[in-house]
Amino acid sequence: NKNHTVVMRAISELHDPKIHYAIAGEGDYKEELLKLVKEFGIESQIHLLGYRNDIPELYACADLCAFPSIREGQGIAALEGMAAGLPLVASDNRGMRGILSRENAFVCKYDDCEAFKDAIRTLRSNPELCSRMGKNNREKIKEFSISVINEQMKEIYDSVK
Q: Measuring CA to CA, which residue among 60, 38, 68, 70 is closest to residue 134?
């Protein structure tokens, strides 16, 4: 469901050793991912980090946030990337549709390696675009602050009294 394969394939086809992809977290597909990394010949570019408690620091080192999930209820990792001021390269899924726009993300079909590859290439070669999209994300994420969410919940509860 997290669909890291599409990003790994895109990176392998870009042939740019300066592009790296870090995956934080643990899961049942680690061995499968390691096998694909070898198959694609990108061992030095893919970093399976395991469980981390320093996610803000990881985002601070990044140039973009790739979010290729096939399905999401609400993509917390994408929201964290937005809060860090990163542009997004994300798959079009139900949980992200109200969040993503041309102003803050490249939106790709979940299995469209070419679209992911083109988005990564475009952002890699255009720091001004990265900066603009990152600033837009810092603004957009304010819609999801705890104070805004609390006010929306209060309105919902008040409407059913």
A: 60
Give strand pairing partners of 108.
91
How far apart CA 99 and CA 104 sit, in angstroms, is 9
Instruction: Provide the b/e sequence for 96-121 (b: ≥16 CB within 10 Å).
Output: beebbeeebbbbbebebbebbbbbbe
- For all residues of the chain together, what is the average pLDDT? 94
Tell me which residue of 22, 134, 132 sits closest to 81, measured CA to CA: 134
101-156 confidence digits (pLDDT tens):
999 999 999 999 999 999 999 999 999 999 999 999 999 999 888 888 888 899 99
Q: Which residues does residue 101 pair with via DSSP β-bridges, in sequence order? A: none
Q: CA dist 85 to 63, 69, 70, Å?
A: 9, 20, 23
Who's near 55: CB < 8 A, 6+ residues apart? 24, 80
Residue 74 tokens, joined: 């609400």
- CB–CB of 82/65 below 8 Å? yes
